[in-house]
Every structure is written in structure tokens, then in C-alpha cells.
Amino acid sequence: MRVRFAPSPTGALHIGGARTALYNWLLAQQAPDNRLVLRIDFSVSERATTENVEQILDALDWLDLSYDEGPIFQSRRADRHQEVLAQLLESGHAYRSTATADDVKAYKQQHGADRGFRGGPEDTGAVRLRVPDEGATVVHDVIRGDTAFEHVHLDDPVIARGDGSVLYNFAVAVDDLDAKISHVVRGEDHLSNTPKQLLVFEALGVEPPTYAHLPLLHGPDGRKLSKRHGAASVQELRDAGYLPETVRNYIALLGWGYDDETTLLSTEQMIEGFRLDRVSRNPAVFDEQKLRWMNGRYLRELARDDLVVRLEQFTGRTGIEGAVAIAQEKMQTLADFEPLTAFIFDGPKEDPKAFDQVIGSDGGADNLAAARAALADTEPFDLEHVEQALRRVVEERDVKPNKVFQPLRVALSGGTVSPGIFETVALLGREETLRRVDAALART
């Protein structure tokens, strides 16, 4: 099996594109002789910048999706495209035509709006592929079944402009042929392109690849996935603190399932279980809340040393081992680390509202002072004894635990959310804990 991933370099790699890349990669991993070809297609050439190509390669590298051949640049294959174009013109399967959009419109007014345009050969003009007058081009799709496109309704498609530059559908067919692609797995939005590409194969007298068109991605509201639903590209997911293995796992499930129950999948399970005929034809829902949940599961299962390295790279901080140890259970993304733990390194944040509501009212200052007295006498100052001391304060003052723990949390962090209070106190140590508590009490 030879598959290809052929994005157009018009920006960052969209989540839908990443899923297409992943599915092709999974197929390529299933047998030693299978190959994945990376081709950079052009669609709007002026936007096909080096920067956009680098974004695609960067996203594939982050997702750890390797390819066996490429990248092949469609824009550098002009000579080959011209060779095939000349072959079709010579054989009569293509012809030159100066027909404009207005000419096509006039033709349909005369012959019927649903009648495909047919032109006559001329000496100059764009190149059109000749569509047979009768019959139909049938797309045999592994996922969607057969879709027939009646020839009577198809215009003779333009495959090259008057200046000789070829169009996308023609170039794609030639490139797939030359790369010996056996299976084309791509998004459903390309389904309308497929009959035009099949007609090129037919004109050349060669067997086409097998096609599989993946379902569209929707947001939870049922509308086509876009930025309004949150992150829409691989880079945005990376910047939001998601792990590449989580993203791989989650997007694999957007239209396919290992079985009816399993959600968390190893790479080996995905390779073993992926089948095109198990991909749904219905739109798949990308739900970032579910992705966050899944990422939290992955984060909690990471080895501590591994998580430290990833967080150092993500945040630029060093010496974070202790903070990682107390924050790992509360994090869902790498980006959660800073809001949870920045106070450990930088001191309490300024949140007057939290201070007034927790320490400045309802006995908060008195409970904080009692906690300070207990911690000052705690020996040794470790997690076990810190917890014992603070729970004694709760018991002696006959209050709910939060009445003691929250004032202490606000004094240490400046806010109402932090890692576990016992772990936080033990990590900061006696001297720093008492210094921050004294500073808070001085404000009351």
C-alpha cells in the first residue's frame, strides 16, 4: 500500500488535516512494504510560502508522524505536467478552448442548466479535458460507498490555463500516478474533485487509486469546525499545552473507534486496529473539553521526570521539580502549570477581591493567625507534620477545614486556587511560609 498526505501550504496545519495525516500514517505502519509519501500541493500558489511549508513540517514532527518519501513539491513538477498535458492534447482527450464563463453560461441557457458544457477544439486558449457524452464516472469510496457523477451534467473541466499553467485536479492526478499511490485518503471536501481526477486517469488509460473520503469535523454545536470552537490548528493545540500523544489519540477517534469502549489508546493499538472500512461517514465532533479531560489523564500518567522536562521546555523555567510534584494531579494541560504554581517562584499574586473575601472577613484573619502559630511550632516541617498541625487547628477552632485552609492559601498564593495546601506549605518551607503569612496579617 502506498498512501500520501498532500496538504496545500496555505497556513498552519488544521486539525482536520492532522487527522488525515494520522490516518495515512497508521495505514503506512501496518506492513513493512507500506509507504507514506508527503507531497506539498499547490492550490493558491502565491500563498504557498516557505513559512507555511515549515509550519506543516513542524506540526508533523511534533505529532511524531514520519513519512517515507518527500516532501515532494508539486510546484516543481511543471515539466512532467506539461508532458502529460501534451500527451492528452495529442490523443484528442483534451482540447484548447477560448470559452469564457459567459460562454459557458450561454451554452447552458441554450442546452439546459444541468447540461455539462462541451466546447470545440481551437488553436489557442485554455485546455479542457473531454468528458464522454454518455455514462457516468463512479467514485468507489471505501467509506462512503459508490457515488455516480453523470457525464451529461459535467462540464469539460479546464485542466490548464491559457498561459499553460496546469490546474490542481490535473496535477494531483498526474502526481498520484507517478508516485504509484494505491490509496487516496483525504477529507470529504475533496469528494467533488474526485470525478475530475478519475477522468484524467481514464484519459491516460491507467487504473486509479482506491479512494476514501473522511467525514467533516464539526464543533459541539454541529457547525463546521473553526476558530470559534477554540483551537483549530495543531500549533494552537501545542501552544495551549496539549501533549502530542494525546492529540494523536483524540483525533484518531474523530470518525473511527478501536472498539465500542476503549478511549485511551497506545500508538501500537491504533496501528493494529485502524481500518478504513471502520471509519464513519457521519461528521465527527471535535470537543476541546473532552480533549482536555483526555490530556489530564495522559499528564497524570507521565513519569515525573518526563513531565518536568516537558514543562521546562514549555515554560522556560528550571528548578521546578517540587512544584511539578504537587501540581501534577491538578493539571489538565501544560499551560495549567503556570497559573497553579507561579506564586511558588514569584510570590503571591495581587488579588484584592480574594484577600478581602477570605482573609478580611468572617474570622479569616484569626484563623490564619492560628494556623501561623501552629506552623511555627511544627517539627519536623514536612508534609505529614504540616497536615497534622493544620488539622489540629481546624479541630481546636471547631470550624470547617476550608475556614483555615483558604485563608492560608490566599496568604501564600494570593488567590483561591493552588495545589494541595499541605503540599504547598511543605514545599515553601517554614521560613517562606511564615514570611508570607506575616505579610498577609500585616494587611488586616
Task: Please give a handful of descriptors for the protein shown.
444 residues, 18 helices, Arc Repressor Mutant, subunit A, mainly alpha, three-stranded parallel sheet, 12 strands, 12% strand, three-stranded antiparallel sheet, 47% helix, single chain
Number of helices: 18
In the CATH scheme, the class of the domain at 352-442 would be Mainly Alpha
Largest sheet: 3 strands, parallel
Would you identify the CATH architecture of the domain at 352-442?
A: Orthogonal Bundle
Question: Your description of this structure?
Answer:
This protein is mainly alpha-helical. The protein has a domain at 352-442: Arc Repressor Mutant, subunit A, CATH 1.10.10.350. Helix content is 47%, strand content 12%. It has a three-stranded parallel beta sheet with strand order 1-2-3. A three-stranded antiparallel beta sheet has the order 4-5-8. The relative contact order is 0.09.
